[in-house]
Design goal:
- β1 and β2 form a beta hairpin.
- The chain starts with a helix and ends in a 7-residue tail after the last strand.
- It is built from 8 helices and 10 strands.
- With 245 residues, the chain is of the alpha+beta class.
- The chain folds into 2 domains: 75 residues, Orthogonal Bundle (Arc Repressor Mutant, subunit A), CATH 1.10.10.10; 155 residues, Chorismate lyase (3-Layer(aba) Sandwich).
- The structure holds 2-acetamido-2-deoxy-6-O-phosphono-alpha-D-glucopyranose (16G).
- The site of 2-acetamido-2-deoxy-6-O-phosphono-alpha-D-glucopyranose has 14 residues, from α5, β6, α7, β8 and β9.
Length: 245
């Protein structure tokens, strides 16, 4: 945490620079889940930052569930999320799914903007020949741990300003009366390629689930086509089945 090493970094407020530095230490495994963080006063001395700045960095990380602050005993890296049971019969958002388990979500953005659609997106979203799409691609984190990679494409009139998506896509769509009410999902087992494995913090070749979701408004119009890759070591997908003749 030598001051020169991070002060030159990518700028922005100093507390965010410190936060990013600590996040990196966590994601690179220098700070393991549940490990204690150095006391505020020590972090301030190490970095040359004021204690107010250090406290602000810690508070923002605690708010996002990356660390846990315990009165009297200091701060700890958040525990590793256990396997997650995910229902296959409800149309929920990642943010809602994780919140129900007491986990805060964050995103690492890979892409966010207007793009030419891939052929699969043109078909799924019933786009015209010259239509662009809003694409948002991100690594979805829960409690500071990568859980899935998601690449969502939406028609531009549904999401005119992709940059406006902060954390929850569905929450934004809901505010504009465009939250999907029905979806078709396809699941397939895969082995993670090198790039995806690195993004998810697992070994190349590890098991994953590829999920494609096309979701629709009540009118039947498709509004979202999302390709996701979920970590196989984190998810159990559960569906209720009924017998009918
Ligand atoms: C889920 C959906 C994804 C949707 C996202 C919205 C699956 C496989 N995928 O992750 O299609 O875009 O939720 O979540 O379930 P958000 O509102 O937190 O951005």
């Amino acid at each position: 945490l030598a001051p020169e090493a991070w002060l030159r970094a990518d700028g922005g407020p100093r507390y965010l620079q410190l936060r990013r530095r600590l996040e990196r230490a966590i994601s690179e495994g220098l700070l393991e889940p549940e490990a204690p963080l150095p006391p505020e006063r020590e972090l301030a001395a190490l970095t040359g930052l004021s204690r107010v700045t250090v406290r602000k960095a810690m508070r923002s990380m605690a708010d996002d569930g990356l660390i846990v602050q315990r009165q009297g005993s200091g701060s700890f890296v958040a525990p590793r999320p256990r396997r997650v049971e995910q229902s296959l019969s409800r149309l929920t958002s990642f943010t809602e799914d994780m919140a129900r388990r007491g986990l805060r979500t964050t995103s690492e953005w890979l892409e966010r903007g207007r793009f030419l659609p891939a052929p699969q997106e043109v078909l799924a979203l019933a786009l015209g020949p010259n239509d662009m799409v809003a694409r948002i691609a991100r690594v979805r984190m829960a409690g500071g741990e990568p859980m899935a990679i998601e690449r969502a494409a939406l028609p531009l009139d549904v999401l005119p300003d992709p940059e406006a998506v902060q954390d929850s896509l569905y929450e934004l769509l809901e505010r504009h009366g465009k939250r999907p009410v029905r979806a078709i999902q396809k699941l397939a087992a895969i082995n993670l390629g090198e790039e995806d494995a690195a993004l998810l913090g697992v070994e190349p070749g590890a098991a994953g689930l590829s999920i494609e979701r096309t979701s629709y408004l009540a009118s039947g119009r498709p509004v979202e086509f999302t390709r996701s890759i979920y970590r196989g070591d984190k998810y159990d997908f559960v569906a209720e089945l009924r017998f009918s003749e």
